[in-house]
Amino acid sequence: MLVSIFAVTFSLLLTGLIKYLPQHLQLMKRRSVYYLSGQEGDDEVVLWQWIDSGINAAKERLGFGTKPIMRGIHNNEL
Questions:
Q1: Is the predicted pLDDT of residue 41 greater than 70, yes or no?
Q2: Which residues fall within 8 angstroms of residue 9, CB to CB, at 6 or more apart?
């Protein structure tokens, strides 16, 4: 009896994780990109623009040039 209760509970939890987790991870990714960059849009482009702006700010503080790290980031060519 105890083993069957454990098996049913485990299978329900596993099924819920398999069905729900990918959607939840996508939602978490969109929210984190919005919180980090302050704008919505294509997640990959916005995230790379945010990373590039942070690198450029650090380079300015250190006295280096502010040339973009990756081509196409500012022109949305990713």
A1: no
A2: none
